[in-house]
Q: What sequence folds into this?
């Protein structure tokens, strides 16, 4: 448990947290890593799993340094920088791994360069010239080496920004990196993270964050401020009333780094929210993970998971210090203490004001939330994280739907597949077919000779899923619903009801459970194709409040009638 100030429910009626809570949380996270510094202070090697890069000590140094930089630049005690200053004297001499092509130190170089730039009066300007020269020499390799063709382009940009401030001619590197991400902008404020349809939280804590920081420190504001405003216009609706972001995509161990773009909007004056709403979103995310220490080890260290340790939430590059990219969530400390984002009374977040059903044609997503329970669902018709030519389904990307209170399970939840030779086909690469208010659609080819065209329509806690399946007669079609822990009880309920085409139902057990609890149950529907273009319709419900009656499907008119009498045509 963190030692935190008393809650202030007058200034912050929704979370109780103020700037003082953010400062105390930052200080506690920094204090917890102190026992793991190397004698020369150039590495922080935390206990636990090693990443595949072998750069864990450097990760520990760089990512906590970023947190210390936000704290000091925002008015904290400059003494917090002293061990990091000492580490700079020896790190470039060999304790830090050399920056090479496609190698993790390039990522950490960006955090170090950003931290040095933000704290220059207290740290860099006081360093011995010989130390400065060695650090510059180490950082310069980030400008020469090849990097992964995705958000990594922004790491040399960040390093180059610092070196340019020191008088180096690095504008070509800055322009090249920013130009590269242009090809991945899909509209609605969303970027693909590299080639392929990769849409996830990296939009907020990488694709928008680094250009926003570059602009904040003197670079061009446009088009980044305009895009950030567009992104935040729908992104804020993806935070649960309990503060949790939606559990979807990779690197989820960064947790409250999801608050970074909300603060970036305040830094650039590009937020669509009132200052009180912005702080409510950011403080809600931080409080969700830290208020009761649920994301911390007994030693006060961030764990490798969502709450506690959770292996399926990890990637091969995840190491014991990796979660400290959550430091990005503390970006708001750069705002002065008298900024309206800190002094305004908290106001409700978007999901607390009204039901949301926001279709995003660019990424092919549908953000769907309900005010009665504050729960957020993300209906997915566009993000697949597939390599060229396809590959195995990624459970963190290719489910039909995700939420802020459920996680992927095995057997696959929220999946539509064909049963061929006893095996369920993957979803495969997704082709988005459009999205609008309350609906989204896509197609996929689970095998070269089969086609599934799908559309989702949402209202309240319900999602109608219609699939038109082109496959041989007699092919079994299997649809699954939300994976819920057996002990969910009345706190969270789910249902998967057949409306057309499905002829039998069952419940499958998932002994490994999900990130939200063990022993999950996955509802399942099955039916057989009667010929090309067979239609299957069901309704998937997820709610933490009493749900209205499910909708009715008319196969003749291809319409859905909702509980309030509203009749809608299915876009497919």
A:
């Amino acid at each position: 448990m963190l030692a935190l100030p008393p809650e202030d429910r007058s200034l912050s009626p929704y979370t109780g947290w103020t700037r003082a809570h953010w400062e105390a949380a930052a200080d506690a996270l920094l204090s917890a890593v102190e026992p793991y510094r190397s004698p020369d202070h150039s590495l922080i090697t935390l206990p636990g799993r090693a990443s595949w890069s072998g750069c864990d000590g450097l990760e520990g140094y760089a990512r906590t340094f970023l947190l210390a930089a936000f704290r000091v630049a925002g008015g904290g005690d400059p003494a917090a920088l002293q061990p990091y200053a000492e580490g700079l004297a020896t790190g470039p001499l060999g304790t830090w791994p050399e920056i090479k092509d496609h190698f993790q130190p390039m990522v950490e170089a960006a955090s170090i360069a950003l931290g040095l730039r933000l704290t220059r009066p207290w740290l860099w300007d006081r360093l011995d010239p010989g130390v400065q020269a060695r650090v510059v020499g180490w950082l310069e390799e980030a400008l020469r080496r090849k990097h992964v063709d995705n958000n990594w382009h922004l790491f040399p940009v960040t390093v180059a920004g610092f070196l340019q401030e020191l008088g180096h001619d690095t504008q070509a590197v800055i322009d090249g990196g920013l130009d590269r991400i242009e090809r991945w902008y899909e509209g609605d404020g969303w970027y693909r993270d590299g080639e392929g349809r990769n849409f996830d939280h990296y939009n907020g804590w990488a694709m928008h964050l680094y250009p926003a920081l570059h602009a904040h420190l003197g670079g061009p504001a446009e088009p980044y401020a305009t895009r950030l405003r567009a992104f935040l216009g729908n992104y804020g609706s993806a935070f649960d009333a309990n503060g949790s972001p939606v559990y979807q995509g990779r690197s989820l161990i960064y947790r409250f780094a999801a608050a970074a773009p909300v603060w970036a909007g305040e830094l650039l004056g590009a937020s669509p929210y009132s200052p009180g709403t912005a702080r409510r979103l950011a403080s809600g995310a931080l409080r969700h993970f830290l208020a009761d220490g649920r994301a911390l080890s007994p030693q006060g260290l961030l764990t490798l998971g969502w709450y506690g340790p959770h292996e399926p939430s990890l990637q091969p590059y995840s190491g014991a210090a990796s979660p400290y990219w959550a430091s990005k969530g503390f970006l708001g400390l750069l705002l002065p203490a008298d900024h309206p984002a800190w002094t305004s009374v908290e106001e409700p977040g978007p999901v607390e004001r009204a039901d949301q059903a926001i279709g995003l044609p660019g990424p092919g997503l549908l953000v769907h939330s309900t005010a009665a329970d504050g729960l957020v669902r993300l209906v997915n018709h566009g993000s697949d994280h597939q390599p060229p030519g396809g590959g195995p389904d990624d459970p963190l990307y290719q489910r039909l739907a995700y939420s802020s209170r459920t996680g992927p399970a095995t057997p696959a939840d929220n999946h539509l597949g064909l049963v061929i030779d006893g095996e369920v086909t993957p979803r495969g690469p997704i082709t988005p077919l459009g999205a609008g208010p309350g609906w989204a659609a896509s197609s996929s080819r689970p095998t070269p000779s089969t086609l599934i065209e799908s559309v989702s329509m949402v209202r309240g806690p319900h999602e109608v899923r219609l699939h038109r399946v082109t496959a041989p007669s007699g092919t079994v079609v299997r649809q699954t619903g939300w994976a819920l822990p057996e002990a969910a009880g009345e706190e969270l309920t789910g249902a998967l009801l057949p409306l057309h085409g499905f002829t039998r139902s069952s419940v499958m057990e998932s002994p490994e459970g999900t990130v939200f609890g063990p022993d999950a149950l996955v509802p399942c529907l099955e039916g057989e194709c009667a010929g090309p273009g067979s239609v299957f319709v069901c309704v998937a419900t997820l709610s933490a409040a009493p749900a209205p009656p499910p909708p009715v499907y008319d196969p003749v008119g291809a319409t859905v009638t909702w509980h309030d009498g509203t009749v809608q045509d299915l876009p497919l």
Notes: The first strand starts at residue 185 and ends at 187. The chain has 14 helices and 21 strands.
